[in-house]
Specification:
heterodimer, A: TIM Barrel, eight-stranded parallel beta barrel, B: alpha/beta, eight-stranded parallel beta sheet, 10 strands
Chain lengths: 394, 255
Amino acid sequence: MTFLGTPPGSAVPVALERRPGGVPEGTAAADLLATDLAGLRARTATATAVDVDRALRAARPTLEDFAILLSPPAGQRLEELARRASEITLRRFGRTIHLFAPLYLSNECVSECTYCGFSAGNEIARRTLSPREVTAEARALTVQGFRHLLLVAGEHARIVSKDYLVDCVRALAPEVPSLSVEVQVWDTETYRRLVEAGADGLVVYQETYDRDLYSGVHTRGKKRNYDWRLAGPDRGAEAGMRRLGVGALLGLHPDWRTEALAVAAHARALVRRWWRCEVSVSLPRLRPAAGDVTPAHPVDDRSFVQLLCALRLLLPDLGLVLSTREAPALRDALLGLGVTHMSAGSSTEPGGYAAPDGAEPQFEVADTRAAVDVAAVVRSAGFDPVWKDWQRAR
Amino acid sequence: MSDDPLVIAGRTFSSRLFLGTGKFPSAQSLRDTIGSCGTGMVTVALRRVDPTADEDILDALPPGVLLLTNTSGAVDADEAVRLARLARAADLPDWIKLEVTPDPRYLLPDPVETLKAAEVLCAEGFTVLPYVNADPVLCKRLEEVGCATVMPLGSWIGSNQGLRTRAALEIIVEQSLVPVVVDAGIGAPSQAAEALELGADAVLVNTAIGTAGDPPAMGAAFRLAVEAGRRAFVAGLPATRTGAEASSPLTGFLS
């Protein structure tokens, strides 16, 4: 990473810290904003059967090929697309599925987001786990076999502070080999502290890449700053995070293809810009949550599968994450179609594993099976459930 | 092949096939494949090892098969060295497959960091088997710092493309004073046989076996191919010719 400059009076490079408005040069965020997404969307609309033929056979598919693979004519070739995706996934990842669990630290939140159960305006029971309670939650999960945890929290810089997060990571690191964080976006320095405490992965969903829609669904709070969030993964990578996760919430945008193009372009930009990082994508489909959210634009299973398979062709090494928002039957059917990581046995309420006391969940899970049962299904489908796949070496 | 054993760092291996373990559908499948392919050494990523788990990947290893811990995930020499030390601290064997692959996509080895790590680990008494690009000079440098083998790639890991680096592999085999193990890209038994035919001492295979429809059966196929390739090499393959050899030599009148 080359820094763009040091402001007067500061010894700290701040290229990635510029805010608000605009993203720094030399970032995947900037690469994404320079991508002609509208042109790609138009390519999706004009794709012919001949284009689909070529895109399906491309040795190294481009974003244009990806746009074609999202098209309705490609949707008619879903079986072929799925076969290609399955072959590529098998060759790259073998017959393995990585299992992880989210650990909800807090549902406190000062941001108002129309789709989220933790939204500041919602009248729900709020709870923040103490580091001791966090350790108890982690133990309830490691007993089940989990060795990779995703720490999740609402956005509350005072209650879910930098120091609190660093303390949580530091408390868990001796017991949990791999720790990712999905919390409000922070500056590079805070990410560096989290890495030093033992975090290795950063997950930042942009939720929607459509700037106007983004403003519409994020009605209050720091999360309203689109650009600051968009460059979050860049700051995490700069700070030494080894795994970067991005994604969008399907169901917000009226056109899933437009959203998919942006997600793919962002993931591809991250892969190129931060070539040492493993990049993953998750595309949660909106589920009912507190606040009576019903998805405005639900994405059907067929489209969802087309999108996942097209992503696999575009980025053969991409981690594809499937959460318990999806129903058991679909999750089981997607084994081997490109998915590499699954959460299992998830609780989305803080304290939900060791001491559930009715704190409000972020969303309802559709796959309520216990981790051991999901692992059994993975096995019976001919895949090895992988619990541990990381060893800290720093 | 007991009359033609492979010796690495003083240890004798009756099989010239080594096995990777990362892509198998189950521990049972891995166990069965270790049996069917006849290997004497398997490599396991330390990142996958979990002695605290109910079922650890190491449980699939039968006695007598040497564990070659690998440093998968290391992006520089420091991380690789730390992983090797962690393996030693966990009482795993001192045999280390050194992998320094900063790029998680093609998993291509970093030659500079690999050499640095090899120097440190050899000095600390590890038996080091480094995964490298098919670079003859790098292989000589690794040999000089005390590596037990060199493990050049045939093509990118998991690509099943076979010996795309054949011309460089031939030079490495010609020059090497330590065993040469072709380590990546071997996608079919015929390609394994080709590696042994050209003089490689052994091959290491994972994807082609672990992702096969029937891994134990594919392991058995590789066993046969490796034996055939080695026997052909020892027997002395006749040189290939572009045309028929004249039965009446043109220079016969000179004798």
